[in-house]
Amino acid sequence: MEKQINDLDKDPSNWKYGMFYVNKADKRIMVPKKHYGWGMTFNFGNPKSFLYLALIVIAITIFIGFTYFI
Known about the structure:
This protein is α+β, with helices and mostly antiparallel strands and 70 residues long. It is built from 1 helix and 4 strands, in the order ββββα.
């Protein structure tokens, strides 16, 4: 029987080192963290998640750069 998309993040084999979610079959970019109620994490099996993570890092770097030089 095929797993429901909401059950994919509950499978321990999809969690690398206990904290990184990697599942190419799951098309979601963000998934609930392993311990519910603690937020969301990226699905590193989806290539778009790397783009979003890079954009966040760039935005933080630009913000820190502007506040440092002003």
